[in-house]
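Task card 7
Instruction: Convert sequence to structure tokens.
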Amino acid sequence: MHAILFDQPGSADQLYLGDFPDPEPQPNEILVKVAATALNRADIMQREGKYPPPPGASPVLGLEMAGTVVAIGKKVTRWQTGDRVCGLLPGGGYAEYAVIHEDLALPVPERMDFTTAAAIPEVFLTAFQALRLLAKVQPQETVLIHAGASGVGTAAIQLARLMQAEVVVTASAPKHEQCLALGAQKAIDYKSEDFAAVVDDHTEGRGADVIIDFIGAPYLKSNIDTLATDGRLVLLAFMGGAQAEEISLAKILMKRLHIMGSTLRARSLEYKKDLTRIFYEFAWSDLGKGTIAPVIDSIYEWQKVKDAHGRMEANANVGKIVLRVNG
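Output:
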């Protein structure tokens, strides 16, 4: 089969369309002819040699896909050939074919195309894990979402609103309108405003109950200042750096703060199966009805993968960048 490959770590110029062995479904897996996949920051990190795939995972980039089932393992009971599915992968999405455990696959809603479906799994499952499983967001709580215009950010805004939370985001000013349209009540320009001061004013001194952060070290002190008593901080990435300095533990202790870090790719199969099931029960009908939806920034033919990576690296996107895969 064809797949997007690279021979050595480096820039997007390393990427090319080449030949790779066809995957074969294990007894509980399905083989999917991929129609579309989508970019994630992890793809860039893996391409740069900073984020190797978990043991046993495909070395091909791509953490999600949508397509048609073309073969099933001998123990599969949930799917048949011809079914339209999407799902989360540990790798292998930038390819003509991918395998996925039957319990990680999700049915593509009847009126949804593959390019939309491919933009759902990674960002919505990541956001749902952070908000529901880790932070345990409750109705009327204030949730601050950093990088609100990112793929995970736009998904988190919508999910937090479904959880009846009040949503505040940070994003560059040109991206505020989109965040507010998705349901955020307040947007903060991280380039010109002090988000801790704005949140303090917005909440009349109470602070945020939950913060979802992708920036890391540069935001840690302000995040701690911003959190309300019994607040929860979920760290999903450290795009701004991993080494924080001069952090006082006093506020963490006195405000009874919970600071959690999480990744999803390396989680166990059983964890991902439970997460997929709980997310399906919570949000899939809303996705099917269009009440919530992935935000599609742009769609590239997969031969233009270098351009797609360049757009993400320039932080130009609002929402997901999708690759349409040729059959």
